[in-house]
Amino acid sequence: MKRSYDTKRIVYLAVLTALMLIFNLIPLRLGGLSLAVFSLTVMVIGIIKCGITGGVWLGAVFGLSVMLMPETTVFIGITFIGTLITVMGKGIAAGLAAAVVYKVIDKFNRYVAIICAAAVAPTVNSTVFFLGSMIFFRGYFEELSATASMSIVPFIILVVIGLNYLIELTVSIIFSPVIYKISGMK
């Protein structure tokens, strides 16, 4: 019986890994919205189906795929190690935190657990990006914020992270009922 579960888990992770890579690496758009915003939703499905290990794995896949995005080359040009730490750290931390939140709350209410995990993933992702930006890319963002006549912290929060975070959070929460439905599937 355990072998069957492990096979299912491997298949789930393989399919979700492929979806994550497609969403992040193929520049597909739904209207004006990049399909990359659905990556964190894929991560939450993986958490439900495969637990904390699935969340960490898909967080690492998310981080790796972001490392390969053209937009990341700006940060790699500043510091490869800082970019690697920030990007992999935000993906893995988002997967781990959302998985732990889901596991704790699922004991009481699965639907609430899914909503909370769906909210935690983009929140942790954006928070770790903010911290990485302040540690590794401060000079870059100080120059950008000066051209916008803003100080660095509000610039990063409002201009760099803000809209993306709100879109990721909204998409994750809107798709919570779909995730809930999927979570009941065998």
Strand arrangement across the biggest beta sheet: 1-2
Query: Overall pLDDT, averaged?
Result: 89
What level of helicity do the residues show? Answer: over 70%
How many strands, which pairing sense, and closed or not: the largest β-sheet?
2 strands, antiparallel
Order of helices and strands, N to C?
HEEHHHHHHH
Question: What amount of the residues lies in strands?
Answer: under 5%
Tally of helical runs = 8
Shape: globular
Cα gyration radius (Å):
17 Å
Instruction: Note the gap between the termini.
Output: 14 Å
Low-pLDDT regions = none
Structural class: mainly alpha
Number of strands: 2
Write the layout of secondary structure elements.
Blueprint (H helix, E strand, L loop, with lengths): L1 H24 L3 E2 L2 E2 L4 H29 L5 H6 L1 H27 L3 H27 L1 H10 L4 H23 L1 H8 L3
Antiparallel strand pairs: 1-2
Helix pairs in contact: 1-2, 2-4, 2-5, 2-8, 4-5, 5-7, 5-8
